[in-house]
Amino acid sequence: MLDLLGQALANNEKTLIFTQFRQMGNLLIPLLEDGLGLKPEFLHGGVSRKERDAMVTRFQTSRAHPILLLSLKAGGTGLNLTAASQVIHYDLWWNPAVEAQATDRAYRIGQQRNVQVHRFITANTFEERIDAMIRSKKELANLTVSSGETWIGDLSDNELRNLFQLG
User: Fold this and answer.
1) Vertex 135, ends 125 and 68: CA angle to 5°?
2) Domain-located, residue 155
């Protein structure tokens, strides 16, 4: 992770780091301080609304705040973090919708950068098996949903008229 962050910093890119556990965030702060020489702010459920807004503003506008660490639940709703071009999911959430919602903080109206998303998975663990199961369920859902939703868009004007014609 430090190599990835070092590259982002060298390229003047901003990074969001999501963790599902507040305690893990507390452990990451000294690791990032020692490894990169900077202390990221940590937005979690215990941060007041006023301080949360201040953290977001600093991240969005200040080069002195290139990394924002967020607990997944606290950072998953109501934030616009388009200054980020890198998103790291340090430990995975077992609900892919929550993880996607957190990632979407960087994909907002006004985003002018390509955003890369990195998901860290510990090999040969239960976490890896859960990830494989989630991926297979997503693939199955995409097969059924996409064929059910896109077929109407593939119809010609005449076919659409016939489909919706009464009588």
Assistant:
1) 75
2) no
Structural domain for 82, as ranges: 2-148
Question: Could you give the CA distance from residue 59 to residue 85 in angstroms, rounded to a whole number?
Answer: 12
Q: Where are the beta strands (DSSP E) in 2-124?
A: 14-19, 41-43, 67-71, 84-89, 116-119
Point out the residues of the chain with pLDDT beneath 70: 75-77, 109-110, 140-155, 163, 166-167
Please, which residues have CB within 8 angstroms of residue 129's CB and are 6 or more apart in sequence? none
The two three-digit tokens of residue 134, written as one number: 């989630």
Model pLDDT, residue 82:
86
Structurally, how many domains does the chain consist of? 1
How many CA within 13 A on the CB side of residue 142? 6
Looking at the domain assignment, is residue 165 inside a domain?
A: no
On whether residue 166 sits in a domain, the answer given is no
- Look up residue 128 and give its DSSP letter: H
